[in-house]
Amino acid sequence: MALDALCLAAVLRELNASIEGGRIDKIHQPGSWDIVLGVRGNQGNVKVLLSADPSHPRIHLTTLERENPDKPPMFCMLLRKHLTGARILGLEQPYMERVVSLRLEATDELGDKVSRTLVLEAMGRHANLILLDGEGRIVACIRRVEGDITTGARQILPGLFYRLPEPRFGIPPLLERELRFGGEEGDLAPRIQQLWSTVKEYPSTPTMLIQEGKAKDISFLPILQYGPAVELREYPSFGELLDDFYEVRERQERTKQRGEDLLRAVKNARDRTARKLENQRQELLATKERERLRQMGDILTSNLHVLEKGRSTVRLQNYYDPKGTELEIRLDPLLTPQQNAAKYYKEYNKAKNAESALTLQIEKGEGDLSYLDSVMEALSLVEGERDIQEIRQELIDTGYLKYRGKAQKSAKRVSGKPMEFRTDAGLRVSVGKNNSQNDLLTTKQAGKGDWWFHTQKIHGSHVILWTGGEEPDEKSVEQAAALAAWFSQGREAGKLPVDYTPVKFVKKPGRAKPGMVVYTTYRTLMAKPDEALVKRLRVK
Questions:
Q1: What angle do CA 249, 253, 256 make, to 5 degrees?
Q2: N or C: where does the chain have the smaller number of CB atoms within 10 Å of the terminal CB?
């Protein structure tokens, strides 16, 4: 859901109080469409996110840590050149429009004071972030628009004078329904104008609408139209509300954008392994009929004296059948009776040997399939490029991917950090985001007296509750188990069985794939995946 104009106005009132008069001292571009400004304001140092992402354009204070690329994009470099050290004069928003102008006083190359404006057009697929000089000319834009004479679409290109988009005044559907629900009739324009004045002058109520445990929408006032079917969760600030609302969506989209090729490669490998495994199981099932091949060889051998070359079938008494029925046996007319009997014995021995080989292959295939499922789960937890590189590196080490070239082969190995949490009792909890981190946590970093948690019989993260050998409190155990339940394949289910034990009882078998361990002397706790708990305990 994109911010509507009224909700945006409420956000800007809160934002302006924190950054007006402050100075920009840091500028980063963590994503293709996102800019984060570090501002030294009158309320301390804060970070401002300006996003021109078509899926969820917005501006607000943020406390989330976002991974920055090793090399800043060109747009980021231009902003640093023009805006580093600039003083923020204020924020402006045209009436009921999703356009924000950040007015700035900067210093040019000669040391003179100059005006600059950073414009965010938070308009869905037309979203853009544009830097203007003192005359209103476009210096740079995060998305270039060539324009279209036939449709009247604006050109947004460096060197052109900037002009505002055509007014698109409209009442958000959610708000219109709420006003009608509250008894408003007729033309809603006067009521909207009144709301506009209210949100610009007075503090609003940052509210998240939650339906069936999932974030449904956001608002600047309580929404009553859904009744008890929707929970209204109030937040202390719009910055916290928007960070919370968009965090999961952004992570999923980053995973899709940055790891799409990797996800496709893993999925193809998994599907290929699953097909091969099914074929092997069918072949193994066929070997169960091998006893019948040996019996037919025996029956032919005992009747060689009545057989002759050239026959394609023969009916002989089946002395393996208690009823003594006749059995029809196919023969190769080009072979002698002795050769036909030997052929059945050969097929019997072949099936017998195949059973042993197929059993081993199926066991290996099941291990491969389980491992690839764990990688698929790990890809759902990535939070940045480093996590994706770490998983790609792991797949190369295990032989599922190949180096793309000499540059990749000689590239420095990356090592990401597990997610960190803190229980209400103050105990530290670490959660691995992939198999490599799981191995490192469980087999290298955790002490023998620390506690290990994992969902029972389904893939998930290794969770370490750092106790230093002491017995943890019951609530910390429950919270660590809830984290293990959330960071698993069973996240969408109800309560899940989570096994836990001191790390000394967890072992990694020789030659086992990354993330694979065995454990003994464990206890089991039913834990409910709880997104709200995960967010509350997360160490930023």
A1: 145
A2: C
Report the distance separating Cα 4 and Cα 170, nearest Å.
Answer: 9
Helix, coil or strand: residue 124:
helix
Please indicate, yes or no, if residue 393 is contained in any of the structural domains. no
Three-point CA angle 335, 340, 345, nearest 5°: 145
The last residue of a domain, from among 375, 410, 444 = 375
Span 102-128, pLDDT tens digits: 999 999 888 899 999 999 999 988 899
Task: Give the pLDDT of residue 422.
Answer: 97
| Gap between the Cα atoms of 272 and 278, Å rounded | 10
Please name the residues in contact with 320: beta carbons below 8 A apart, sequence gap of 6 or more: 295, 298, 299
Same domain, 456 and 370: no
Residue 508 scores a pLDDT above 70 = yes
Residue 394 lies in a domain: no
State which of 146, 177, 196 marks the end of a domain: 196
pLDDT 10s digits, 41-59 = 877 899 999 999 998 899 9
Residue predicted with more confidence, 1 or 206:
206
Supply 223's token pair: 């929404």
- State which residues form the domain around 36: 1-196
Pair 79, 166 in one domain: yes
Instruction: For residue 34, give the nearest of 246, 188, 196 by alpha carbon.
Output: 246
Of the candidates 130, 147, 18, the one whose C-alpha atom is nearest the C-alpha of residue 79 is: 130
What CATH number corresponds to the domain at position 153? 2.30.310.10
Is the predicted pLDDT of residue 407 greater than 60, yes or no?
Answer: no
Farthest CA pair distance, the chain: 115
What is residue 432's three-state secondary structure? coil
SS (H, E, C) 514-528: CCCCEECCCEEEEEC
| Mean pLDDT computed over 479-493 | 93
For residue range 27-40, list pLDDT tens digits in order.
999 988 999 999 99
Residue 276 and residue 185 share a domain? no
347 plus 480 within the same structural domain: no
Indicate the pTM of the whole model: 0.59
User: Distances from the Cα of 293 to the Cαs of 257, 288, 340, 370, 436, in angstroms?
Assistant: 56, 10, 11, 35, 49
Same structural domain for residues 360 and 425? Answer: no
Is 172 part of any domain? Answer: yes
Indicate the pLDDT class of residue 338, thresholds 50, 70 and 90.
Answer: very high
- Whole-angstrom Cα distance, residue 481 to residue 489? 14
Residue 5: inside a domain: yes
Least confident of 248-257, 380-389, 474-483: 248-257
CB neighbour burial string for 132-146, b if at least 16 within 10 angstroms, e if fewer? bbeeeebbbbbbeee
Token couple for 118 = 């950073």
Non-local (6+) Cβ contacts of 128 within 8 A are 52, 119, 120, 121, 141, 142, 143, 145, 156
In the predicted model, what is the mean pLDDT of the chain?
Answer: 89
Tell me the average pLDDT across 520-524. Answer: 95
